[in-house]
């Protein structure tokens, strides 16, 4: 029987966290068990465990608020005997220190973005991360840039592995592009770090030049009303569509019905940053040309004029110029389209992600006396 891995995330899962779902469902040599307090999305056909009964759930939610191990996990480990525990996001990793200490199970923690950018600036979290760095067994960063952030937070380099998000490329057919039209696409929650406001300003600049451009914004969030008002003030309300929350299938279809994918990510005022936006990997796999920013781990996949175009964070003028350049340069569009797909095949295949994570598990279990 394959060794069991207990995967824990307080909320399993948010719609944007498809990368976690893909990993767990496609493990080859390890048997996944999923534990959570709040089952939400991507739970079908998985062994999902939650506290038994309302009182146990309330107790464990309270323990979560105190950043301690939910108690139901102890009984779960006794019954199912996992070989190791894998926590997803640093916050939940810290919560499982007590479980690892009392059970003797190795603790693997994956970091994905805001847990290494914004969270360490919150009260008490640098101290908590120092404890996690000492007591965690292995740490997984989604990008090289994120690994550097972990090093600055005091995590030991010898126990950090970089494992890039993986994509099932059979589900993202490549459609070569040979020209870029006016249909622009931006996918992501309507929050500051996604850069929607900059994209609106870029569309307004193109409009002022008499250039036709229409922007589809897929996703919802707290900035929806403010962004709609901004579009109105910029005089482009009729050129911007806010679709609200959409399904993964709708996002997938949008890659093929739009001409340019915009990923204008930026560091938010509270320090929040991306890891590597999943939409970027998906879009490149589908062949849509990408314009993104020099932000966090993005340049590790989007290399300027090779697999996409890069512009500075927060620079609407540069973003508008890059859009116009794609519209006017069909040869560049074709080159980026093919190179983007090849980069995803080389760096972000599902098989590579699963193999890299299972190599971490192997290394952890080899070290157990």
Automatic annotation (TrEMBL):
Residues 180-341 form the Glycosyl transferase family domain. Residues 17-170 form the Glycosyltransferase subfamily 4-like N-terminal domain. The keyword Transferase applies. The keyword ATP-binding does not apply. Pfam families: Glyco_transf_4, Glycos_transf_1. Keywords: Transferase. Coiled coil: none annotated. Gene3D superfamilies: Glycogen Phosphorylase B. GO terms for molecular function: glycosyltransferase activity. PANTHER family: SULFOQUINOVOSYL TRANSFERASE SQD2. This is Glycosyltransferase. It comes from Rhodothermus marinus.
């Amino acid at each position: 029987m394959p060794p069991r891995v207990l995967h824990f995330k307080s909320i399993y899962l948010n719609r944007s966290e498809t990368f976690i779902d893909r990993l767990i469902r496609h493990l080859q040599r390890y048997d996944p068990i999923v534990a959570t307090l709040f089952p939400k999305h991507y739970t079908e056909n998985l062994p999902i465990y939650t506290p038994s009964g309302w009182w146990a759930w309330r107790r464990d939610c309270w323990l979560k608020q105190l950043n301690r191990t939910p108690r139901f996990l102890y009984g779960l480990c006794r019954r199912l005997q996992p070989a190791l525990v894998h926590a997803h996001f640093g916050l939940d990793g810290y919560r499982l220190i007590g479980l690892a200490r009392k059970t003797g199970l190795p603790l693997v923690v994956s970091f994905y973005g805001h847990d290494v950018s914004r969270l360490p600036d919150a009260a008490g979290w640098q101290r908590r991360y120092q404890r996690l760095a000492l007591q965690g067994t292995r740490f997984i960063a989604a990008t090289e840039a994120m690994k550097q952030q972990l090093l600055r937070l005091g995590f030991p380099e010898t126990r950090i592995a970089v494992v890039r998000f993986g994509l099932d490329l059979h589900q993202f057919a490549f459609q070569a592009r040979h020209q870029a039209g006016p249909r622009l696409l931006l996918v992501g929650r309507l929050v500051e770090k996604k850069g929607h406001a900059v994209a609106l300003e870029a569309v307004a600049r193109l409009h002022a030049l008499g250039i036709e451009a229409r922007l589809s914004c897929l996703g919802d969030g707290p900035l929806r009303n403010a962004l709609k008002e901004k579009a109105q003030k910029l005089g482009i309300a009729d050129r911007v569509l806010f679709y609200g929350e959409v399904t993964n299938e709708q996002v997938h279809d949008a890659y093929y019905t739009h001409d340019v994918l915009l990923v204008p990510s930026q560091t938010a005022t509270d320090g929040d940053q991306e890891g590597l936006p999943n939409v970027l990997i998906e879009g490149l796999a589908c062949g849509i040309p990408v314009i993104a920013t020099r932000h966090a781990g993005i340049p590790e996949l989007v290399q300027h004029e090779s697999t996409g175009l890069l512009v500075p964070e927060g620079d609407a003028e540069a973003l508008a110029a890059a859009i116009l350049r794609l519209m006017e340069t069909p040869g560049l569009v074709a080159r980026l389209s093919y190179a983007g797909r090849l980069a995803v095949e080389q760096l972000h295949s599902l098989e590579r992600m699963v193999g890299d994570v299972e190599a971490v598990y192997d290394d952890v279990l080899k070290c157990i006396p």
